[in-house]
Amino acid sequence: MKYLILLTALISFSVIVADERGPDRAMWTAKMKLDLAELKGPPSLADLKAKKADRIANLDLLIDSGKYEGPALERLSLMREKVLNTELPSQDQINLRHERKIKMMKNRLKSRVKMMDRRFRDPRRDQIMRDRERWELRKQKNRRTKKD
């Protein structure tokens, strides 16, 4: 009996600890991705050309495999044509996209930090969410009673 209680306590403690580390890990991975994007910098035009050539080669391989027929084959050939017809952006456009992406990642990271900090939470929002949840539950309950 003692071992059962001890085992239950250990399992529940591990679940609580794992639950607490979840947001920290998400914050850490988001920060790591942001740092990596900043260090790598924007991709070069040659990288995009290589990606495009690789996509076309992959689609050609799928089309020539003979595994696809009818609408699926048409869809693959349309995808290939679309990839062929797309123009590559200039390096300036690539740089702007990269800067915009980094800016969005920083803003998202800041908002996550604010959400984690209880000082920035609005208590009225919590009350509104609880009220909305109650309203949804009542609505579901009324639907069930009307069906019967």
Write up what this structure looks like:
This protein is mainly α and 148 residues long. The protein has a domain at 124-148. The chain has helices spanning 2-40, 45-65, 71-85, 91-116, 123-147. The chain starts with a helix and ends with a helix. 0% of the residues are buried. The mean pLDDT is 83.
Strand elements, count:
0
- What is the CA-CA span between the terminal residues? 46 Å
Number of helices: 5
Mean pLDDT: 83
**Strand residue percentage:** under 5%
Rg over C-alpha atoms, rounded to the nearest angstrom: 26 Å
Helix content: over 70%
Summary tags:
148 residues, mainly alpha, 5 helices, 0% strand
How is this structure best summarized?
With 148 residues, the protein is an all-alpha fold.
Write the layout of secondary structure elements.
Layout: H1 2-40, H2 45-65, H3 71-85, H4 91-116, H5 123-147
